[in-house]
Amino acid sequence: MIKIITDSACDIPDDMLAASEIGMVPLTVRFGKHEFKDRVELPTSEFWKMLATTGLMPQTSAPSPGDFQKAFDDAFANGASGILCITISSGLSATYQSALTAAQAYPQSTPVVVVDTAMASMGEGLMVLKAMDLLAEGITLDDVRTKLLRARSDVLLYAVIDSLDFLRQGGRIGGASALLGSMLSIKPIITVRNGKIEPDSKQRTRARALEYIAEKVHGRQIAKLAIVNGNSGDVDTLVSKLKKVQPEITPMIADLSAIVGSHAGPGTLGICAEVGHDARNT
């Protein structure tokens, strides 16, 4: 039995993680002097409440190699023959490096394979779900890794955010710094490209921004589609716009958890999609 272990930035809903028996190693969220294990000690709903009421800018940190080693040891103790660990982009977090360091302690007889998704939020989550499908086909752990690495270019993430302040103060702004200076008159669209947060577009209104990100999946062959909701009030609007361009697909809706939410901020609303090999245009 191969056990899948991911991190709390994947944004796969808790009930789906539990039902699929996917292990999760939490990152840490800090409000001032108080630290919490994401989604373990700090549920996502409570994170958004704290963000709104404390006036503090949250900080995040990666799990330690020891955190991953404990998760790996527990999985082997419960009958796993191997582990597939799938993490948030190494360009956004030290989580991948911690998992890789922990994995190097295990012999070939108990293999631990670590995959950097070069993604975040449900972009990472869709890679975890794809791994489940691949393992169900009965292919080897090394073949799953190879297919996942190839599939990274098939996963899209686009989001409209209300403010670049969170990305800037969290040090994750990257190429999206090009959007600074005109925030009063635009709604910025960001994407994850080559494992980093990058600017994609500037739209004049929130409604146009949502229409723009919905259009990103228009005419595409879609394997999986998800909406990520960062405490916004217009999820239904995005669902409606997606239905117009992909009427056959009902998107999964996931809450943007504290790890990505700390850097994207409230009001963030985005889409993540796994596209087919004949639909890779950006």
What is this entry, summarized?
This protein is α/β, with parallel strands linked by helices. Helices cover 35% and strands 26% of the residues. Helix 3 crosses helix 4.
Descriptive account of the structure:
The chain has 282 residues and is of the alpha/beta class. It folds into 2 domains: 2-153, Rossmann fold; 154-275, Hypothetical Protein Tm841, Chain: A,domain 3 (2-Layer Sandwich), CATH 3.30.1180. It has 10 helices and 13 strands. It has helices at 14-20, 44-54, 65-77, 95-103, 121-136, 141-151, 165-169, 206-215, 235-245, 258-264, and strands at residues 2-7, 23-25, 28-31, 34-37, 59-61, 82-87, 112-116, 155-160, 187-193, 196-203, 222-230, 252-255, 268-275. The strands form 3 sheets. A 6-stranded mixed sheet has the order 10-9-8-13-11-12, sandwiched between helices. Strands 2-1-6-7 form a 4-stranded parallel sheet, sandwiched between helices. Strands 4-3-5 form a 3-stranded antiparallel sheet, with helices on one face. Helix 1 links the parallel strand 1 and strand 2.
Structural class: alpha/beta
Morphology: globular
Largest sheet: 6 strands, mixed
- Chain-averaged pLDDT: 91
End-to-end distance, in Å? 37 Å
Per CATH, what is the topology of the largest domain? Answer: Rossmann fold
- How many structural domains in the coordinates? 2
**Helix-strand topology string:** EHEEEHEHEHEHHEHEEHEHEHE
Strand order of the main beta sheet, please? Answer: 10-9-8-13-11-12
The total strand number stands at 13
| Residue fraction in strands | 25-35%
Low-pLDDT runs: 170-182, 278-282
Helix content: 25-40%
- What is the highest CATH level, the class of the largest domain? Alpha Beta
Number of helices: 10
Report Rg. 18 Å
CATH architecture of the largest domain, by name, is: 3-Layer(aba) Sandwich
